[in-house]
Design brief:
The protein folds into two domains: 101 residues; 66 residues. Strands 1-2 form a two-stranded antiparallel sheet. The protein has 177 residues and is mainly alpha-helical. 63% of the residues lie in helices and 2% in strands. A hairpin with a 2-residue loop joins strand 1 and strand 2. The protein has four helices and two strands; from the N terminus they run H-E-E-H-H-H.
Length: 177
């Protein structure tokens, strides 16, 4: 009987190509890396927002490149997510609901749902609450949310029309009623 305190590393003696599940394990590491990258992105976003609110453009050692870091963090997160989706590994739940094979139509539907919820929350907050420093950013967020929601709906509409025409051509006179 094998002692449970002894770690069997003989599986690692074989070349990587013959190791069962090696790529799956590597993709799992990338998934963990993506989760950490998303956390780092949120930390950077929070620090940048705090610096902006405090009126801090620089610290004693020079400027902190928050904008560049945010852009780079977003690009890295997108690249990691793409690799995971190509490897059919379930991404973190915020990236398509935890499904590995999410099409553009499903992603647009999910975005429409999220932006519609944000729109309702912001509109409600702006109509029922008093004044404060939060109102101007909330109005800006509501405006951007509505613009994005309109874009998503338009893209989704185009995709539906394209699918209808490409995958199922209409018969002559079918659209006349």
């Amino acid at each position: 009987m094998i002692d449970p305190r002894v770690l069997d590393v003989t599986g690692f003696d074989r070349p990587v190509e013959s190791r069962a599940g090696a790529e799956s394990g590597d993709l799992h590491v990338l998934r963990l890396t993506l989760e950490l990258q998303l956390d780092a992105l949120l930390f950077t976003l929070g620090a940048a927002a705090h610096a902006q609110a405090a009126g801090e453009g620089d610290d004693d050692r020079g400027p902190i490149p928050w904008q560049r870091w945010l852009t780079e963090d977003l690009q890295l997160a997108r690249a990691l997510a793409a690799v995971l989706l190509e490897g059919d590994v379930s991404a973190v739940p915020g990236l398509g609901g935890g499904m590995a094979d999410v099409g553009a139509d499903t992603s647009l539907d999910n975005l429409a749902d999220h932006y519609a919820s944000m729109e309702r929350l912001l509109a409600d907050a702006l109509t029922h609450r008093g004044s404060g420093r939060w109102r101007l950013p909330a109005v800006e967020a509501l405006s951007r949310c509505r613009i994005r929601l309109a874009e998503v709906h338009e893209l989704r509409r185009r995709m539906i029309v394209t699918e209808a025409v490409v995958f199922r051509p209409f018969l002559p006179g079918e659209l006349l009623g």
